[in-house]
Amino acid sequence: MFQFNPSKGMLALAAMNLITGTTANLKTCASSSGFSCQSSSTTPTCCFNYPGGAFLQTQFWDTDPVTGPSNSWTIHGLWPDNCDGTYEANCDSSRAYTNITEILQAQDRSDLVSYMDKYWVDINGDNESFWEHEWGKHGTCINTIEPSCYTGYESQEEVGDYFQKTVDLFKGLDTYKALAAAGITPSNSKTYTAGAIKAALAKVHDGAEVYISCSSGKLNQVWYFFNVQGNIIDGKYEAVDSLTSSACSKSGIKYVPKN
């Protein structure tokens, strides 16, 4: 799914436009189906994401308290956006499951759970509740992974697919390495410009502009935006510019270490 690019010195999504194959039992989508947010269609189908057609792979840099490894950002989630910065939330209360760990383990995804426990972590130490929140608020609003879109659907199958896809995207968007390759490393004394940070991250996002967030002048979030052709699990992802304007200062941004 990913290829190593020696010129960038890190894992990158191969051209960010490859079809990312999985073993999901979703209905087959024609390669001619349009990209989300780029079609005039307003009809959601199992092969067309609507209204949440833009997808954000979002990441945290938590330092107070610290979460995750000192040399890696952590996962926030995978969110559908209505192509304009607005979004639907908590779309299906009947599928707002409160046992994500059990669901994943029952699907023989224990390795996925272990990875999530390291890289998809809650600031208060309650990973399970965090995962439940992300699935209930965002996952249930993705129309191309509704149960009716599966062939031979097995209960809660879409839950495992959603978390696996989010992790796969995260693995191909190594924010820490992308910044380090541009000389942007955690420091208690150095500061950086927003332009330099965005330029470094655009190199792993097919040149598309990312969204950065700051808290008290410190870099703490990155959002990568995509449009998708087909369903979100094994569809074709295309990197697109951020739909959200950053409130970070243009200069003097701190990127403090995880002490």
From TrEMBL:
Entry-linked Gene3D superfamilies: Ribonuclease T2-like
Keyword annotations of the record: Disulfide bond, Endonuclease, Glycoprotein, Hydrolase, Lyase, Nuclease, Signal
Protein's GO biological process: RNA catabolic process
Its EC number(s): 4.6.1.19
SUPFAM superfamilies: Ribonuclease Rh-like
Coiled-coil annotated residue ranges, if any: none
Protein name: ribonuclease T2
Organism for this UniProt entry: Penicillium arizonense
Lineage per the UniProt record: Eukaryota, Fungi, Dikarya, Ascomycota, Pezizomycotina
